[in-house]
Write a structure and sequence with these properties.
Blueprint (H helix, E strand, L loop, with lengths): L2 E10 L12 E5 L6 H8 L18 E8 L5 E5 L10 H15 L5 E9 L6 H12 L4 E6 L6 H15 L6 E3 L8 H12 L8
Parallel strand pairs: 2-4, 2-5, 5-6, 6-7
Antiparallel strand pairs: 1-3, 3-4
Bound molecules: guanosine-5'-triphosphate and magnesium ion.
Length: 204
């Protein structure tokens, strides 16, 4: 994939701050620390376009990045704040949820959500509840396993089986990636382009 340009557009704390240019958007969603910002950076070959951190909860606003490629449609990547970080105050957690839902529930430009799953963890209630919530709102989701490099080859199949069983999805539904070694990045771009070329869903 040839990236001509990848640039930060804006950070938003509420709906009023979201861009209005109508470019197709792909949102990165998942627990804090799952690797959303790292994967976004890897897709555009940039080390630190989206800020990453070993401290969960680094991304607290909705961040928009414009990506220009050779002979491909322009796309906005949307880095959403991570959910499910137990150590933050309840009030702050509610605030994150409000912001994520404000974005996901009514966004005409949104072509699809990448729901990221850490290869080492079993999906929890957050992920399980999220899939029907998105489906009800007509949002198309692709499931992306992150940090594949952290699994030994011998444990890989068992881990993937656990993930697919928990979520009740087929194995083919998972895109397997590593932001560290670049595994699965081309496959993920293909999945993204399939979403971008869809007609936007009619939303209730
Ligand atoms: P929040 O913004 O807090 O929601 O986190 P995030 O989902 O954006 O995660 P981030 O990309 O900041 O990554 C969290 C940590 O995981 C960082 O220390 C990354 O270096 C590490 N990490 C991310 N992706 C990978 C990967 O594919 N392999 C390995 N080994 N580490 C990764
Ligand atoms: Mg982040």
């Amino acid at each position: 994939m040839e990236i001509l340009r990848a640039e930060f557009v804006t950070s938003a704390a509420d709906r009023e701050g979201f861009p209005r240019d109508g470019l197709p958007e792909i949102a990165f969603v998942g627990r804090s620390n799952v690797g959303k910002s790292s994967l976004l950076n890897k897709l555009v070959n940039r080390r630190a376009l989206a800020r990453t951190s070993a401290t969960p909860g680094k991304t607290r606003l909705v961040n928009f990045f414009r990506v220009e490629r050779r002979e491909q449609p322009e796309v906005l990547f949307v880095d959403l704040p991570g959910y499910g970080w137990a150590r933050v105050a309840r009030r702050e957690r509610a605030e994150w949820q409000r912001l994520i839902e404000a974005y996901l529930a009514g966004r005409a430009a949104l072509r699809g959500v990448l729901l990221l799953l850490d290869a080492r963890r079993d999906p929890g209630d957050d992920e399980r509840d999220f899939l029907p919530w998105l489906a009800e709102r007509g949002v198309v989701v692709r499931l992306v396993v992150t940090k594949l490099d952290k699994l030994r080859a011998s444990e890989r199949e068992a881990r993937l089986r656990a993930i697919t069983r928990e979520l009740g999805i087929p194995r083919e539904a998972l895109v397997l990636t590593s932001a560290q070694n670049g595994a699965g990045i081309d496959a993920l771009w293909n999945a993204i382009d399939a979403l971008v070329s869809r007609e936007p869903a009619a939303r209730a």
